[in-house]
Design brief:
This protein has helices at about 40-55, 90-95, 110-120, 165-170, 170-175, 180-200, 215, 235-245; strands spanning about 5-10, 15-20, 25, 30-35, 60-65, 70, 75, 90, 105, 130-135, 140-145, 145-150, 160, 160-165, 200-205, 225-230. The two termini are about 20 Å apart. It is of the alpha/beta class. It is built from eight helices and 16 strands. Strands 1, 2, 3, 4, 5 and 9 form a six-stranded mixed sheet that branches. Strands 12-11-10-15-16 form a five-stranded mixed sheet, covered by helices on one side. Strands 6-7-8 form a three-stranded antiparallel sheet. The radius of gyration is 17 Å and the shape is globular. This is ROK family protein. Pfam families: ROK. InterPro entries: ATPase_NBD, ROK. Belongs to the ROK (NagC/XylR) family.
């Protein structure tokens, strides 16, 4: 039997999870998703994580992503979640709610990045690689010769006086009813800024929008680095969470 670990990806709009086959780097079963409660408080979100895990009758280690800075299982920021998350020992909270199952918590984009570097678009790539997850906000994962620099949070770089994710995230596109062309223009400006700071060899674009690369990647301008869509698409966070739980 293949090695399976459970992964959960907490997002600003949805919480999804599934057992992951770590030999293939893919979901072992179709994922289960529930809506993120509003407000997205620790107790409310923890209840949803329990619902997702119990949907599969899972009884083993669980890896969980969180959309913010995570150090030693403690959530330090919560840009798109309720502010009551700040300072919470999230790993301990979820382990308690999951009846003592071992729980590992890490930043959501870092999880997606580790999965893409192991199984996806970044596999075998050296140099500097930056994964950007585009969704409710903008997450980032920075790698140098395959080594992760955790919790970079490049979606919060200032761009024209604004938090970048408020201008170039998928939520910003939807809220502003932007055309693909206009959104790609904003995304180009953001990626040009990131490139100026870090000079990556490769950008990997993740999040749900990576299912539609033909809609916007050809419209990105002024970026010298190679740009690829995430191969694991919106499952990368779940896979990376499971990888972290394996240790």
């Amino acid at each position: 039997m293949s090695m399976q670990i459970f992964g959960v990806d907490i997002g600003g709009s949805g919480i999804k999870g599934a057992p992951v086959d770590l030999e293939r780097g893919d979901l072992a079963q179709e994922r289960h998703k529930v809506l993120t409660p509003q407000p997205a408080t620790p107790d409310g979100v923890a209840g949803c994580v329990v619902e997702v895990v119990r949907h599969f009758d899972w009884d083993g280690p669980v890896g969980v992503t969180f959309p913010g800075v995570v150090t030693a299982g403690v959530t330090r920021t919560a840009a798109n979640m309720d502010k009551s998350w700040i300072g919470v020992d999230t790993a301990a909270l979820l382990a308690r709610e999951l009846d003592g199952r071992p729980v590992t918590v890490l930043n959501d984009a870092d999880a997606a990045g580790v999965a893409e570097m192991t199984y996806g678009a970044g596999r075998g790539r050296g140099g500097t690689v930056i994964l950007l997850t585009l969704g409710t906000g903008i997450g980032s994962a920075l790698f140098t010769d395959g080594r992760l620099v955790p919790n970079t949070e490049l979606g919060h770089l200032e761009l024209k006086g604004h938090d970048a994710e408020t201008r170039a995230s998928v939520k910003a596109k939807e809220d502003g009813d932007l055309t693909w062309e206009r959104w790609a223009h904003r995304l180009s400006k953001y990626m040009q800024h990131v490139e100026m700071l870090f000079s990556p060899d490769l950008f990997v674009i993740g999040g749900g929008v990576s299912r539609k690369p033909e809609k916007f990647l050809p419209l990105i301008e002024g970026v010298r680095a190679e740009i690829l869509p995430a191969r694991l698409q919106n499952n990368a966070g779940i896979v990376g969470a499971a990888m972290a739980a394996k240790g």
